Amino acid sequence: MISITENEGNARLTAALPQTMITIIGIEKILPRLEDLALFLPMLAVMGTGQPLTCYNSLYGGPRQPGEADGPEEFHVVMLDNQRTTLLADAEQRDVLGCIRCGACLNVCPIFCNVGGHSYGTVYGGPIGSVITPHLRGLQDWKHLSYASSLCGACSETCPVRIDLHHHLLQNRRNASHAKPIMWQKLAFHLFAALANHPWLWSLTTKLGRLGQRFHGLIKGSAVDPAQAWTKTRELPPIARQSFHDWWKGRG
Ligand code: SF4
C-alpha cells in the first residue's frame, strides 16, 4: 500500500491520470503496519505545517481492478537504496533514517531561515539535509554542509522523531577531517595562509579584490564568472570600501 499525504491535490492528480503508476520510495519509508499511519500522518502534518492532518491523504493498493472506474492499469514500486543500507549499518548515525521529512528542523534553523533552501544545492536542505546528503551523495563533495550550522541544537529539540541532528553534524565534521582533503581545498588553505601571514600581500589582494568587484557585475552569473559556483544562488559579500588599517591611518 502506498500512502501519499499532501495539501494541494497535485500528487493525487498525477496518480489518477496516467495509465502506469510508478512509485519511487526510499527503503527507509516502509512502515510495518498500515495502522502506523494513524501516528505518522498527524505527526507529519502537525510538525510540518501545524495542521491536525493534511488536506489530502491517499492510499494506493495496486492496479485498477475489473469493475473499478479509475486507477492505473499498471502499478510499479521502485525501492531505492542509494547508500541507505550503508547508513543503516552505521550505528552512530542510523537514526537519521527515521526522518519523516516534516521540515520542522528547517523552520527553526537560524541558518536555513537566513540563506534559504537553494543555497544548499541539494534536494534536502536545512539541518537534516546537511546531515544526510554527505551520506547519500558522498562525504568529500558535501562535507561543507556540516559547517552550515551554529550548533544551537534547535533542530534536535524540535525533531518529532528525536534525531540528534546537531551532534550528527559534528560527527560529519569529524569524519570529514579524517578523509583525504580535496586538492583545490588544500591549495585554497595554503593560499589563505600565505595571504594571512604577509600583511602587504593581504592589503594588495583586498585592493585588487575591491577593483575586481566593480567589474564583477558585468560578468556575474555568466560562464566566465570565476565565482559562478557561489553567485548562482547567493550574492558575493562586498569587500569593505576601506580597510581597518587605512581607516586607522586616516585618523592620524
Ligand atoms: S530531521 Fe526531524 S524535524 Fe527534520 S525533517 Fe526529519 S523528522 Fe522533521
Draw up the topology in text:
Elements (H helix, E strand, L loop, with lengths): L1 E5 L3 H7 L3 E7 L10 H13 L6 E5 L13 E7 L3 H5 L15 H5 L1 H6 L10 H12 L1 H4 L11 H5 L6 H14 L4 H15 L1 H21 L8 H4 L12 H7 L2
Parallel strand pairs: 2-4
Antiparallel strand pairs: 1-3
Helix pairs in contact: 6-9, 10-11
Bound molecules: iron/sulfur cluster.
Iron/sulfur cluster binds next to helix 4.
The CATH architecture classification of the largest domain is Orthogonal Bundle
The N- to C-terminal Cα distance equals: 77 Å
CATH superfamily of the largest domain: Alpha-helical ferredoxin
Bound small-molecule species: iron/sulfur cluster
Order of helices and strands: EHEHEEHHHHHHHHHHH
Number of helices: 13
Placed side by side, the strands forming the largest sheet appear as 1-3
Topology, number of strands: 4
Largest sheet: 2 strands, antiparallel
The share of residues in helices is 40-55%
Q: Can you offer a commentary on this structure?
A:
This protein has 252 residues and is mainly alpha-helical. The chain has three domains: 2-80, no CATH class; 91-178, Alpha-helical ferredoxin (Fumarate Reductase Iron-sulfur Protein, Chain B, domain 2), CATH 1.10.1060; 183-250, no CATH class. It has helices at residues 10-16, 37-49, 84-88, 104-108, 110-115, 126-137, 139-142, 154-158, 165-178, 183-197, 199-219, 228-231, 244-250; strands at 2-6, 20-26, 56-60, 74-80. It has a two-stranded antiparallel ribbon. Strands 2-4 form a two-stranded parallel sheet. The termini are far apart. Iron/sulfur cluster (SF4) binds next to helix 4.
